[in-house]
Amino acid sequence: MDGLTRTKELVFVLAATNLPWELDAAMLRRLEKRILVPLPEPEARRTMFEELLPSQPDEDMLPYDLLVERTEGFSGSDIRLLCKEAAMQPLRRLMTLLEDKEEIVPDDELPKVGPLRSEDIETALKNTRPSAHLHAHRYEKFNSDYGSQILQ
C-alpha cells in the first residue's frame, strides 16, 4: 500500500502490485480503479538515463540514444539496475589495476575512479536483461479482464 488518506466521509487507498493476477476477488472488489501502468516510453527512458547517468562536463556525452533504443521492454527497475551495472564498471577497472600492483598503494597515491565510458554502457547492456516482458501477456489479460479503462 503506497498511500492512505482519511477524510470525514472517505478513505482513499492507493496500492500497487507487480502481480495483479494474484489478488483475490475480495481485494479486487475493494480496489475500484485498477490501472495498468505501462513500461516507460522512449522519452521517459531517456529522462531516467540522464538522471541516473549524467554526463560529466569534461567528458564525452554518454550514448543516451543507444540506451533508449536498446532498452525497449525494460521496466523502471530494470533501467535502474542497468545504470548501477554501468556505474560499477569504472570501479571494477580501478580494482583490477590495484589488484595487479605488488605493493600497497598509499592513500594519497590512490588513482581516482575514472569516468563512465561507452564500453561501460555496452557491458551493462550485455549483462542486464529486462524482466517485465516475461509477464507482458498476463498484464494485458488482467487489464482487459479487470482494468479500469481510462480514456485520454
From TrEMBL:
- Provide the ATPase AAA-type core domain boundaries: 1-39
Name the GO cellular-component terms. Answer: microtubule; spindle pole
The signal sequence is none
Q: Which Pfam families match?
A: AAA (PF00004), AAA_lid_3 (PF17862)
**The AAA ATPase AAA+ lid domain, residue ranges:** 65-101
Arranged from A to Z, the UniProt key words for this protein are:
ATP-binding, Cytoplasm, Cytoskeleton, Isomerase, Microtubule, Nucleotide-binding
Q: Name one GO molecular function term.
A: isomerase activity
List each coiled-coil range. none
Instruction: From the Swiss-Prot or TrEMBL record, give the protein name.
Output: AAA ATPase AAA+ lid domain-containing protein
Q: Which organism is it from?
A: Populus deltoides
